[in-house]
Write a structure and sequence with these properties.
224 residues; mainly alpha; Helix Hairpins; minor pseudopilin epsh fold; three-stranded antiparallel sheet; 10 helices
Length: 224
């Protein structure tokens, strides 16, 4: 029960419950835009099949949760917690992931660059640490660069589709998907290539200031 409530609060803060039905977000680029680093086939399957499945299953789980609440069915409410966490986390994680990638690449600057240099010594050090920790994930999961309320940056990994903020309290800035569907068709079992690709900056176009503002907007939306 507590897990279901905790996930609901996190989802609200992320702005995902500002609409009744979750939908698959459009990509800000074509499926082939990231080639040759990430193939169009992988992007199409990853987005339109895998992410769509998380969205569909999350909607089903939330419908069942609403019905269970109306009936006061505590047993069913508790039993839905794993599905909400897994599919809700998959939706949150992938929605962030697509925005982290850019055909044009880009390097951190301004407030984000200053924070990286402060907490890791350099962008290269941060990349190496993020790569090493993410490669070490056993099975499926994610590697993240996130920040805490005080503004310090941290690297963390999460298993399966566990969402970063609900699991660690860190606000996600940049995520790396190391589920096999994210790379296996193209790179087989060579995970490291996907973590430090030659054609796309590890940081993409993210900025600390922009991510903080998005978090504030999501909180305002959930309270409306």
């Amino acid at each position: 029960m507590l897990l279901a409530r905790a996930f609901a609060r996190r989802s609200l803060r992320a702005g995902l419950w500002c609409r009744q039905k979750h939908t698959l977000p459009d990509l800000p680029y074509d499926y082939g835009a990231l080639e040759p680093t990430i193939s169009a086939e992988i992007m199409q399957l990853h987005h339109s099949k895998h992410h769509q499945t998380y969205v569909n299953n999350l909607n089903v789980a939330e419908e069942k949760l609403a019905e269970a609440k109306e009936k006061g069915d505590v047993s069913t409410i508790i039993s839905l917690a794993p599905a909400l966490r897994f599919n809700g986390g998959g939706h949150i994680n992938h929605s962030i992931f697509w925005q982290n990638l850019s055909a044009d690449g880009g390097e951190p600057e301004g407030e984000l660059l200053a924070a990286i240099n402060r907490d890791f010594g350099s962008v290269e050090n941060m990349k190496n640490q993020l790569s090493a920790q993410t490669v070490a994930v056993q099975g499926s999961g994610w590697g993240w660069l996130g920040y805490i309320a005080e503004g310090a940056l941290q690297i963390a990994t999460c298993p399966n589709q566990d969402p970063l903020e609900a699991t660690t309290g860190l606000v996600p800035l940049f995520g790396i998907d190391v589920w096999e569907h994210a790379y296996y068709l193209q790179y087989k079992n060579v995970r490291r290539i996907m973590l430090k690709p030659s054609g796309i900056s590890l940081i993409g176009r993210i900025s600390l200031q922009g991510s903080m503002q998005q978090s504030k907007n999501a909180t305002s939306c959930s309270g409306a």
